[in-house]
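Recall that a protein's primary structure is simply its ordered list of amino acids. Everything else, from secondary elements to tertiary packing, is in principle encoded there. The following example makes that idea concrete.
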Amino acid sequence: MGSDAEIWIVLTGLCLMVGLLIADRLRPGLVLFSIVVLFMCAGIVTPEEVLAGFGNKGVITVALLFLVSEGVRRSDALGHLVERLLPEKKSMTIRRGYARILPTIASVSAFLNNTPVVVVFIPIIKQWASRTGLPLRKFLIPLSYAAILGGMCTLIGTSTNLVVHGMMLEAGLEGFTMFELGKVGIFIAIAGTLYMIFFAAKRLPDENAPNGEEHPARNEESRIVEAVLGPRFPGINRSFEEFDFRTHYGAEIREIRRGGVVLPDPERQSFREGDTLVLDTDGTFIRTWGDSSVFLLLSNGKEYKPLCPPWKKWLALALLTLMIAGATFGSLPFMQQLLPGTRMDMFFWVAVVTVLMACFGIFPAKKYTKFISWDILVTIASALAISRAMTNSGLADLIAGHLITLSGNVSPWGVLAVLYITTNLITELITNNAAAAFAFPIALSAAEQLGVNPMPFFVAICIAASASFSSPIGYQTNMIVQGIGNYRFRDFVQAGLPLNLIAFTLTMALIPLFWQF
C-alpha cells in the first residue's frame, strides 16, 4: 500500500493526462508514456513494471491482429462480400440498406480490427449511395456503430477486450474465452442493429456530405481525392507553413475539414490526426499512396483495390477461419492432449496465422511494420503501467471504497452500474483502451472489498469501454467517418445516445444472469 503522497501524485498525473488527451496536442501514446515516466521517477512503479506492459500477451496479440486484418483487407474478400449485398435498385430505401449491410459489418468486425473494416466499406458504400440516390450521411455513422457493436461480441473483436483479458491473466485469474463476452455483446449488437434499422435514419442529417465531385478538376489529368490523416502522417501538429504538403506528396490542398466543418484560412491551421483533406492530385496519387500508413483512408469516388489473385482471397478466409476455430476449441481437453505442454489460446493461433499469411505473401512481409499501429500499442502498454501505479499507490483501493459507499453499500449491482457509467464517460473523452486499463484495478479492488466474483465487473468494463457512440473522440472509426461525412459532434450525440442507453440497460440486466457475484 502506498502513501498519501503517492496517491496525490498518481491522481495529479491522471488529471494532467486527461487534460493533455483532450487538448490533443500530442499523440496518446506519448502522453501516457510521459505520465508513466513521471510515476517511475516518483518510485511508484519500477522499470520492470513499466516494461511489463510491452511484453503483455494481450498487447502482442493486438499487434499481430493488425497484420491479420491487413491480410484480409488486401485479399478483397470483404469488398466482394459487401458488393453482393448492395443491389443497384433505385427503389432501395435507407431502412432496407441498413438491414442488408449492418448485420454483415457487425459480424465481420467481431473477428477483425474495426478500422480496416470501416476503411474497406466506406468507398463501396459511398459509390453505392451515389448510384442509388441515397444520402451518404445516413450510412457512415451507422457503419462505424455496427463495427463497434460487432467488436463487443468476441475476445478479438476489439483491442479493449484483449487488454482486459491480459490484465486478468497477469492478476492470476482465468481470462475470457473466445465467445464469453458474446453472452452480453450479441444481445447488445442485435438490439443496437434493430435500433439503427428502425430509428437511426431520423436522427442523422439529411443533406449529402461534400465529395470530390463538388470540386471540379482543373484539367483532365487532375483528380479530387479525400484523404483522412492517420497518426503516422509526418506533419501532425505542424502548421501548413512548417510542413509543405505539396512538396512531400505532389498534391494541392483545396480544403481541410475537422469536427464536421470546413476550416477557414487553412494556411493558418495545423494538421491534426483525423483531418480530412480535399486534394487536387494527378492520376497517380492513390496508386502511389494507397498502401501508405500515413493516410487512414483515400477516396476519389472510385474503389481502390490492391491487386490480389483469387487464391489469396480464399486462403486468407481459410486462415481467418482457422484462427477463430483454433482459439475457440484450443482450450478444450482433446486439443490439450493433442499438443501437451502447449497453451493453444488466442495468442497461439494469431501468431501461427500471421506467420502463414506472411509466408504466402497475403500481406507484404517486408513492409509488415507499416501495418501495425504502434501508437495504439504504446498507449495500451503505458495504460497497463498506469493501472499498476494506481494499485501500488493505493488510489485504486481508495476509489473502489468510494464507489462502494456511493452505491449504497448494500449491493454489488450499484457498484457495477457506477463502474460502467464511469468507464463509459472516460472512453467518450479519451480512448477506449486507456479507460479499460484505468477501470480494471478499481474493479478488482471493489470485488475484493465486497468479497464477490470480479468477472461481472470485468465484463462491464469491456462493454462500457467499447460503447463509444455519443462522441467522435473515443473511437478511431467514429473519427474517420466524421471527416468523410462532415458530421458535427451533435450528430453523434443525437444518433448515439440511445445506443449508449441500450448498451447500459442490457449490460445491467444480462451480466447477473450469466456471471454470479
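Residues 13 and 35 are 6 Å apart (CA to CA). Confidence is low (pLDDT under 50) at residues 216-221.
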